[in-house]
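Data card: per-record layout.
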Amino acid sequence: MIALHQFRSSSSSSTVNFTTKFLPYQLYPSAPQAGESKYDWYKKTKYDNSEERMKMYTTLMSAYGAPLNIDFRFDGLVANTLQAHRVVQHYQEERGAQVADKIVNSLYKQYFEQAQHPSSQETLLKATTAAGIVEAEARKFIEAEDEGLQEVRMLVREQAGNGVDSVPYIVFEGRRRDFTLQGAKEVPEYLKVLEQVAKESS
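The structure for this 202-residue chain is written out next.
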């Protein structure tokens, strides 16, 4: 997102226009909807219950976020994200890329910086409202938790069948060829690919 914003502010953006399309994928599909402690989950799952290694991780992530004005928090809950994917897919199809962008940006901010549940109805309603969707309309869809759910599950399976096994997994569709970046990268690496696509499209 940050790299795309920087690209759109550069001279290279005059030759090409990028549109973001989100597709659902779950690293941990069996995660409970109720959630569990984010800090404890990371420490147990990623760092073998080592407080020292967990402290190193939080320090590193905080250092990464600071120059970008992202204040990472490590409290709150990790939980199943299927309902969030359902909402993003619905409004991406109904309202387009810009609305989906705003929903996802709000979801990220709520989860990573405000320690909110990633897919509770309250979180989803706040995200859709931030995207300009009328609250009553959004609430009706959010509360209908089975609407569109099967289609989202099929899309998740489709991504796994396409070889997706990490997040983020970003495909840049170019005029001559496509580029794929898997896993978190530094902003300059994303920017380099965007500029390469633009160069090959001129």
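Known properties of this structure: The radius of gyration is 18 Å. The CA atoms of residues 111 and 118 lie 6 Å apart.

See the next section for split statistics.
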